[in-house]
Specification:
Strand content of chain A: 25-35%
Helix content of chain A: 25-40%
Number of strands of chain A: 14
CATH topology of the largest domain in chain A: Rossmann fold
Number of domains of chain A: 2
Oligomer: homodimer
CATH superfamily of the largest domain in chain A: NAD(P)-binding Rossmann-like Domain
Shape of chain A: globular
Largest interface: A-B, 70 and 70 residues
Amino acid sequence: MYIIMDKIKIGIIGYGNLGKSVEHGLRQNDDMELVGIFTRREAKSIKTLTGAQVFHIDDAKNMVDKIDVMVLCGGSMTDIPEQGPFFAEMFNTVDGYDTHAKIPQYYEAVNNKSLKGKKTSIISSGWDPGMFSINRLYAEAILPRGNTDTFWGKGVSQGHSDAIRRVSGVKDAKQYTIPIESAIEAAKRGEALDLTSRERHRRVCYVVAEDGADKNKIEDEIKNMPNYFADYDTEVHFISEAELEKNHRGLPHGGMVIRHGVTGLDNENNHTIEYKIDLESNPDFTANVIIAFARAAYRLNKEGSYGAKTVVDIAPAYLSRLSAEEIRKNII
Amino acid sequence: MYIIMDKIKIGIIGYGNLGKSVEHGLRQNDDMELVGIFTRREAKSIKTLTGAQVFHIDDAKNMVDKIDVMVLCGGSMTDIPEQGPFFAEMFNTVDGYDTHAKIPQYYEAVNNKSLKGKKTSIISSGWDPGMFSINRLYAEAILPRGNTDTFWGKGVSQGHSDAIRRVSGVKDAKQYTIPIESAIEAAKRGEALDLTSRERHRRVCYVVAEDGADKNKIEDEIKNMPNYFADYDTEVHFISEAELEKNHRGLPHGGMVIRHGVTGLDNENNHTIEYKIDLESNPDFTANVIIAFARAAYRLNKEGSYGAKTVVDIAPAYLSRLSAEEIRKNII
């Protein structure tokens, strides 16, 4: 007997790096199918990686019956804060909203709309926020007496690369965030609590200067940029456009969550929990996390669990294609 | 305004290493209180680490109104398979049942009884099964194209230590399981799939021989013991009883779950997810995981979610003392 399961029908809003990674990431999950990509640009102007159909974003509201989960792939700065609540009332949604400080208010905005529409929205998935949040929560619950530290990198920070590109005389740039080994070791011993930003991460910049630009001035401006670089030891390397293209084209990233805690009658036993990721493509990995949570959103909505949720509100089993029986037999 | 919250009332069945670790682990969680420890031995004969009350195990059934969650700390070989279903009908329970191959049938037995009693039972928590199971599931859901490997150690295997102690002429022994570095590195590259047991872990034994025992014969018998040692490179070191007591008294353990997976249009991007723990006390850490899941069992039962569950059926937030608002503000 064959059981023909309906595939989960996915829509993608926004066709930048993340949208493209969701597009091909979906091909790894044969319980899902991509209905289309929605963009603010002219649909005809876009050629997709996999031949997926493209629609104008204004057409999404006419396709509520054709899409089970809408994946929001716009930017966290301006796109998602507006699109999240807007689409949450008509679709189940998943996003990777990553402005940590504004997550509480974003949650409220999405929750109101998704409850109203009897939809399910999972916000702030990806890896940080996302898998790192999950690991911070588990680790703190297991080792209540302890300290948690998060490190990022080695990897490309898009925000810092963009900041360098805004410096006058800079043609292009890539910035790598690199965790400092001695800080990681201190975190494993529970001794990183008082370390400064400078002691935790360093920043390495590869900069293509415009012809005739004052490199000393550029370097000085980068190193003293508040918030982005002033609090870190920053290296600036000037390279050619060809070298940037050849050696720094990718978007690798990674990082780790470390918790050290103590147990025992007199706190005599030390324990370290470490969750570490090493990624050749930041957008691909982020997309794959979001896709797994799209499966969860679909299932939760079928069960009548409406409203906005964060990643820690979702039982891990909802992310897996495996049945409960298979999980008990092969995973537990 | 003060809100006086009722503490979660905990009982412990079994007072071995794990029961003792749960006893003092509970003191790290001030939303819980220990009602008592239940034993098959004569209650009066037991002096507890923290002054906790001791009852005979037969008295548990008269205390169903006094205990919110019963933590089962007996052995997985004979105690838990019997006690799990028995207590699941009268109490919410949590256990660390770790006979992987029998988890499906144990689940069924517990589920039938806990549904009947409208109780909630979380089975096979701890770290493997437990946190490692959770991490295997997440990692496979995120990277569907990939391989997962689990390594154990460096740490003391109680089962292997016991096996050595059963060899004629052996007075006492400790066995350390040690993962092989080259296998870990291969796993991070996704190339460990075909490695044999011997290529993944090695075993180091510290043995106290009885006076006049034939050490060559003991060493030979250990190294050729089927299932336990024959498939591994095993070192046997004979040491004095004093040295064993001085240097090998603890129960450290640890291990890691590694998943390598690929993404991209042509599987061109490599990713590695690693969850690693390093524990000075195996029973303390196991107890702390179980305690966090006891909190979840209590909450799920209050919500009317009855029956047996495994760790992947529980949303991470149920393990934490933090409120949903605090989690969104500080953890996500």
